[in-house]
TrEMBL record:
GO terms for molecular function: peptide transmembrane transporter activity. SUPFAM superfamilies: Periplasmic binding protein-like II (SSF53850). Residues 82-464 form the Solute-binding protein family domain. This is Oligopeptide transport system substrate-binding protein. InterPro entries: Peptide/Ni-bd (IPR030678), SBP_5 (IPR039424), SBP_5_dom (IPR000914). Coiled coil: none annotated. The lineage of its organism: Bacteria, Bacillati, Bacillota, Bacilli, Bacillales. Transmembrane segments: none annotated. One of its GO terms (biological process) is peptide transport. It comes from Ureibacillus acetophenoni.
Length: 543
């Protein structure tokens, strides 16, 4: 009797829910409408994890970056891969290419305050202050005095950052930097609302009135480890050209789950930086004619802990690098028109299109020779004594790739390889602490130049290095490239630096990315550029 009563009650509840959903309850719903009666344009997306940090000066990853670049805006931004003015109304560059004078538009923060030159000054100096441990501080090093201040050898007052007045920022560089206006579009160069940050040092840890931004969208809601909601910022200077009213972003770690959601119409776009297309869905999407493949200035590589028991040896690192069958990995597993990476700079970067001849793909003979040398140097007689941990962040795709590499290393080198995975933030912490032997990581160009890939290894102290490796000759060549004004001579110096690193193998390049994505037909103007940026400002929904 009790069970029957519960069944009847359940049926009544279900019927009530159905009636309510069909609007038979007598109350008209307007949840999907704007105040003027037009239908709200909502975009549904997913990212792979909780963003590690939504502070422009602390974020280092693409998951955090894609949120930041849609709620903040710098002096410049990118459109179709080209630099355009954003908060800057005008930019004047001195004849010696060392001084940039930015005149700001009349723009406002989300709390109504004007965006001023002082907000940029505050943000940049905050990131450079060594007490704040910004891992991306080095991207500000083109600014005069920046590296010295960040390394504790210079003073804040010597920085080439000068607030002329509320709407004028003058920036002096150490050396001519041809891509500087690309840098000012990068997240570390975004402004920060000084008054809020000084009043509440934890302003960036949650959505709310203290999360003050100046971009086309506002961080409306942040359910940690669950979802993020962005809404159109009506105070944004170019709000009339922002089509979307709302962007709902779930956090879905599993690629297959994300594919299922796309197929069911629960999300409107799938592809980095908004999760990735699962490997086992690529052929199907190709067959359906909806898979888009874009060029991508990005690389997938394995970083070595050069202080590890076995990976401290350069010949062991060389053996592991050479004993990867990249082409087979691409042909049989990845299937996304990637290319084998045989250097640290992808071929999508100007001047680095050709193979530089550092090593051959799947060169097992040379790998075994390097292994033998490494064993002699370490006093090891049997390859089975070498035990390597291969680490990755939790992901089906990374796991499949790691299993492929593990099988090759075990079969061809006779070493013992174990796999381990960690959630994204934990994984980043492990890399920073060198708590690994070999660890996967992707690197997307921050700006379209080889220096973006090479700079992170200029010192073991660089926040993005994560290998413990450094080399004085390598660092010197990079330093020479900074002051070299002849483009061809500069590229030659960068290639020489790359050659030094590839003789010691702090990383094992695996493949050059392509960017795969699928989207619903009604989603317009949404595709990543060559650096993987997706600016939601330009996206529209036409259902």
């Amino acid at each position: 009797m009790k069970k029957n009563s519960l069944l009847l009650l359940s049926m009544l509840l279900v019927l009530s829910a159905v009636l309510a959903a069909c609007n038979f309850g007598g109350e008209e719903t307007t949840s999907n409408e704007n105040g003027d009666g037009t239908t709200a344009k909502e975009l549904n997306l997913v990212i792979a994890s909780e963003p590690p940090s939504l502070h422009p000066g602390l974020a280092t990853d693409s998951t955090s970056g894609v949120i930041l670049q849609n709620v903040f805006e710098g002096l410049t931004t990118l459109k179709d891969g080209e630099v355009v003015n954003a908060v800057a109304e005008d930019v004047q560059v001195s004849d010696d290419l060392l001084t940039y004078t930015f005149t700001l538009k009349d723009t406002t923060w989300s709390n109504g305050d004007p965006v001023t030159a002082e907000d940029f000054e505050y943000a940049w100096k905050w990131a450079l202050n060594p007490e704040n441990a910004s891992e991306y501080a080095s991207i500000l090093y083109p600014i005069k005095g920046a590296q010295a201040y960040n390394s504790g050898e210079g003073a804040e007052e010597d920085l080439g950052i000068n607030v002329v007045d509320e709407k004028t920022l003058e920036v002096t560089l150490e050396n001519p930097t041809p891509y500087f206006l690309e840098l000012t579009a990068f997240k570390t160069y975004f402004p920060i609302h000084k008054a809020t940050a000084e009043a509440n040092p934890e302003w960036y840890t949650d959505a709310g009135e203290d999360y003050v931004t100046n971009g086309p969208f506002l961080l409306s809601e942040w359910k940690h480890s669950d979802s993020i909601t962005l809404v159109k910022n009506d105070k944004y200077w170019d709000a009339e050209n922002v089509a979307l009213d709302k962007v709902s972003i779930g956090m879905v770690e599993n690629e297959t789950t994300a594919v299922t959601m796309f197929d069911a119409g629960e999300i409107d776009f799938l592809g980095a930086p908004f999760q990735t297309v699962a490997l086992d869905a690529i052929d199907r999407y190709k067959g359906e004619g909806i898979l888009n493949i874009e060029d991508y200035a990005a690389i997938y590589w394995y970083k070595f802990n050069t202080t590890g028991e076995f990976t401290k040896n350069a010949n062991i690192r060389k053996a592991l690098t050479l004993a990867i069958n990249r082409q087979e990995l691409i042909d049989n597993i990845l299937k996304g028109e990637q290319s084998p990476a045989l250097g640290m700079v992808p071929g999508a970067i100007k001047g680095f299109e050709e193979d530089r001849g550092y090593f051959k793909d799947n060169d097992i003979e040379e790998a075994k020779a390097a292994l033998e040398l490494g064993m002699q140097e370490l006093g090891i007689t049997d390859p089975s004594e070498i035990k390597i941990g291969l680490s990755m962040n939790t992901s089906e795709a990374h796991a499949v790739i790691a299993q492929f590499v593990q099988e090759g290393w075990t079969k061809n080198l006779g070493i013992e390889v174990t796999l381990d995975n960690s959630e994204w933030q934990v994984y980043l912490d492990k890399l920073n602490m060198l708590d690994f032997d070999v660890a996967r990581m992707g690197w997307i160009a921050d700006y379209n130049d080889a220096y973006s890939f090479l700079e992170q290894y200029d010192s073991a102290e660089n926040g993005n290095n994560d290998t413990g490796w450094e080399n004085a000759q390598y660092a010197d060549l990079l330093s020479q490239s900074i002051v070299e004004t002849d483009p061809e001579a500069r590229i030659a110096l960068l290639k020489q630096a790359e050659a030094v690193a590839m003789s010691e193998f702090p990383v094992a390049p695996v493949y050059n990315y392509s960017n795969l994505h699928v989207k619903k037909d009604y989603v317009k103007n949404m595709a990543p550029d060559g650096l993987g940026n997706v600016y939601l400002k330009y996206v529209d929904i036409n259902k």
